[in-house]
Amino acid sequence: MRRDIAEQFELDPGLTHLNHGAFGAVPRAVRQAQDRARARIERAPMRAFRDELPELLAAARESATRFLGLPAGSTALVRNVTEAVGVVLQGLDIGPGDDVVVSNHGYLTAGWSAEARGATLRTAVFPVDADPDAVVAAFVAALTDRTRLVVIDQITSPTALVLPVAAVAAAVAPVPVLVDAAHVPGALPGLDIEALGVDFWAGNLHKWAYTPRAAATLWVAAEHRASMRPLVTSWSHGLPYPERFDLQGTVDHSSWVAVPDGLAAWRELGGWEQVGRNAELLARGAEHVRAALGTEHPQGGTPSAPCLGLVALPDGVATTTEAAEQLWQRLYAVGFVVPPIAFEGRGYLRLAAAPYNDESDYERLAAALPAVLDTVRATVGTP
Ligand SMILES: Cc1ncc(COP(=O)(O)O)c(C=O)c1O
């Protein structure tokens, strides 16, 4: 770990944290800002909810909107991408008789939420080393004449790929497209959300933009804004988009109040420069791990995310969800927080690089892996 940076976080120094993408990590100063927001609300809840929060939340919303390079009033605050997906499915009134397209690299909750509303899922299937044209073709092949929505992950969770969102949106038009951009804010430079040609774009701020957890954004194209409602409707009646998302009844709004503090921490940690440094660190770190495992890089023509990437595990290791879970437990038991991923019958490690990581983190993992894999093979009898 980089001690100077790690000191700004509250992570357990007894663990090697190589999974920032999962839940982020909140810098101490941001956690303290959230604590202050809570204390302020508790001093006079009536005054806070009636007189203070509307202004604080509007300011937080607009700071997130600017951070994403979007125009004022275009983007709502939600608590996470899962909630954003629910808002979109509800707003489009998706239900029985409708098809929703997801991909085999997609995060599960979009599919589950669509199925829970009675829609039928269609899956665009492509391999981890697909080139962008094959990705587009897979989405087109999954369309039916009943498709009401295509959900595409901009950075895929299990495989860390940056999918060709604009090309997919153009190819599936006029079907509306929802981008699951959970990993994107603060992690993918050069973003121009309005130029993607999509209808909805949802990104978590609590992964790579250092806000408290339960802070996310939902950008909605102008033609859909009138029909989008928060899932908690307590005080939204009569308000326009996006204000109607600001005060969602008596939920804890402190993570949103502290959004500007999280974004300030992102800038202080080095902004896009630190993303570039982390991308280089990840490339070097992944080489250490690959060398220890003796496996090939599974990369095809679709680029990998800057701070998130896969390393293939040896044949037969972590090829099922259960085996991946077992390997996760073994790695955790010897102090490594790094997720094994079973994807389409092959096992991978998904490595992340955050500002508090340094090369020694990956070197230690590389040194520990052979013995850990031996214990896993001994238990399950894999080759
Ligand atoms: C691609 C993707 N989408 C959605 C989510 C869900 O995020 P949340 O639980 O914050 O809604 C995740 C979580 O890691 C993710 O990786």
Written overview of the protein:
GO terms for molecular function: transaminase activity. There is one protein chain. The chain has 383 residues and is an alpha/beta fold. The chain has two domains: 135 residues, Aspartate Aminotransferase, domain 1 (Alpha-Beta Complex); 238 residues, Aspartate Aminotransferase, domain 2 (3-Layer(aba) Sandwich), CATH 3.40.640.10. The protein is built from 13 helices and twelve strands. A seven-stranded mixed beta sheet has the order 2-8-7-6-5-3-4, with helices on both faces. It has a three-stranded antiparallel beta sheet with strand order 9-12-11. It has a two-stranded parallel ribbon with strand order 1-10. Helix 3 packs antiparallel against helix 4. It is globular, with a radius of gyration of 21 Å. The structure holds pyridoxal-5'-phosphate. Pyridoxal-5'-phosphate (PLP) binds next to helix 5.
